[in-house]
Amino acid sequence: MSNRRAPRVIRTQIVRNDYYGAGMAIARFPSFVLDCPDPKALATFYAELLDWKTDVSDGWADIRTDGQCISFQQVEGYVAPKWPGQEVPQQMHLDVVVDDLDVAEAAVLALGATKHEHQPGTSFRVFLDPAGHPFCLCVN
């Protein structure tokens, strides 16, 4: 006879949300927020990259278009991710679609991006934004 207990069965049920109803989202328009040392500078970089509008306040900046938003928050002692290693993990990155990798590369370098030395694919290129976050230029 074993001293092991039988596994506990946990039963769950889907709870219907009477306010929102079945199939309706509880939230909408998700926004990504990137930590950085200078929200205005990083928002300007991504606003130029995506041709979006910038809204800057103290320690915070947003870029927006058609209900989409990316935000940037100032973090004291910010440490940039070290990709592809995990000493300081990236946690997330942005992929943006471009028509021509060479043309887009020249444009993001002119904006202040840095091409990463590690390039693991041929249909995308990895760059670091001015705060050190990895992002990729991708063709379909």
How would you describe the overall organization of this protein?
With 140 residues, this protein is of the alpha/beta class. It has 2 domains: 27-78, Roll (2,3-Dihydroxybiphenyl 1,2-Dioxygenase, domain 1); 79-140, 2,3-Dihydroxybiphenyl 1,2-Dioxygenase, domain 1 (Roll), CATH 3.10.180. The protein is built from 2 helices and 8 strands. The protein is globular, with a radius of gyration of 21 Å.
Number of strands: 8
| CATH architecture title of the largest domain | Roll
Characterize the main sheet: 4 strands, mixed
Number of helices: 2
Instruction: Report the structural category.
Output: alpha/beta
**Uncertain segments of ≥5 residues (pLDDT<50)?**
none
User: What's the CATH class of the largest domain, please?
Assistant: Alpha Beta
Order of helices and strands: EHEEEEHEEE
Q: In the residues, how many domains can be counted?
A: 2
Strand line-up of the largest beta sheet: 1-4-3-2
CATH topology of the largest domain: 2,3-Dihydroxybiphenyl 1,2-Dioxygenase, domain 1
The rough form would be described as globular
Separation of the first and last Cα atoms? 60 Å
List the helices and strands and how they pair.
Elements: E1 31-36, H1 39-50, E2 53-57, E3 60-65, E4 68-74, E5 94-97, H2 101-111, E6 114-115, E7 124-128, E8 134-138
Parallel strand pairs: 1-4, 5-8
Antiparallel strand pairs: 2-3, 3-4, 6-7, 7-8
